[in-house]
Amino acid sequence: MKSSAELRTLLRSIDHKGYPAYKSLTGSYQFGSYTLTVDHVQGDPFASPSSLHIEVLHRDAGFPASYYDRDYVRIALEDYLTRRMEEQFASYNFRAKGSGKSGLLAISRCGQEVLERTACQITPQKLIVRFHVGFPAFGRTINAGELDKILFDFLPRCVENGCFMRRQDARRLKAAIDLAEDQEAIREYLLQNRLAAFVANGSVLPRKSGVSDLPMSGSVPFVSPPSLEIGIPLPHAGEIRGMAVRRGITLIVGGGYHGKSTLLEALQMGVYNHIAGDGREYVITDDTAVKLRAEDGRSIRRTDISMFIRDLPNKKDTSCFSTEDASGSTSQAAAVIEGVEAGTRLFLIDEDTSATNFMVRDEFMQQVVSRSQEPITPFLERAVDLYEKAGVSTILVAGSSGAFFYIADTILQMDCYKPVDITERVKAMCSEHTAPRTQAPDFAVPDYRRILPAGSARGGAAPADTSRDQEITAGRTNGRKYAAGRPSGQEYAAERQTGREEYSRGRGGRGERAKIKTFGMDSFSIDHETVDMRYVEQLADAEQMTALAYLLRYALEQELDGRKTVRQTVEKVYDTLMKKGWEPFCSSYVPCGLARPRIQEVYACLNRFRG
Question: Cα dist. 332→260, 294, 295, 300, 379 in Å?
Answer without folding.
Answer: 21, 5, 7, 11, 10
